[in-house]
């Protein structure tokens, strides 16, 4: 029934902990697909063999080149055979029984997209095990996602919706933003809950030593670059989106630009003016300054760029 997709790169034993939190013996869990993005960890070969031998539902896709989580998430999802797909990061922890809760509520409300809360904690003992959830729903999913800034990797959708949306933008390295936008663009009904469901462990010694600098979310330049171009691509690919949604996207893109440039030597007062005017006249500001913003992000040196954007 449910296929879980985990993109993996040098997660060490954190991956094992994540898999165990999924309760792999659950009858509604059809498969756990681990897509390895050419890990360099010398222990990975031994650990992947252990996982396959220990968990019958595990499928591991090995890759000989490193393409980033967006490409690998799509690879895993398009190979899935479950009716529902669940995505989370391969070093986080899922609270008990959440997959069944999401599935039951989606079926009850006839929804094709579900989001729940991803939270940061300092200790495994802090994981909340309560099961009472407050659910909200919307039949205008894209607007709902934008209004509520829903972008975290704690998402379940139907396989049909994923295939229709084509998943992540593969021109982007970090996938969270593009996955949320593309799924919500094609979704007919979204449900979301304030229930804490996926947990990021912040300060465990093991977590720190294994994650190190591999945790992409710590790389703010990459985050800003990918968020900006996710929005830029989305606006270009879907010119027919409602004006209200376009304004929300533009405000977010220009806000991302300001966050990225404001602490750098390149910052000018005119950049702050662009940020301010985007709140009053977002579309006009975007049309006037888009090329300047794209040039800035294209020239960032320390980010992973999948494809050249010079012709955009």
From TrEMBL:
Q: What is this protein called?
A: Glycosyltransferase 2-like domain-containing protein
Quote the InterPro entries the UniProt record gives: Glyco_trans_2-like, Nucleotide-diphossugar_trans
Name the source's superkingdom.
Bacteria
Task: Tell me which positions the record assigns to the signal sequence.
Answer: none
Q: Where is the Glycosyltransferase 2-like domain?
A: 3-157
- Listed GO molecular functions? hexosyltransferase activity
| Organism of derivation | Acinetobacter towneri
Q: Which Gene3D superfamilies match?
A: Spore Coat Polysaccharide Biosynthesis Protein SpsA, Chain A
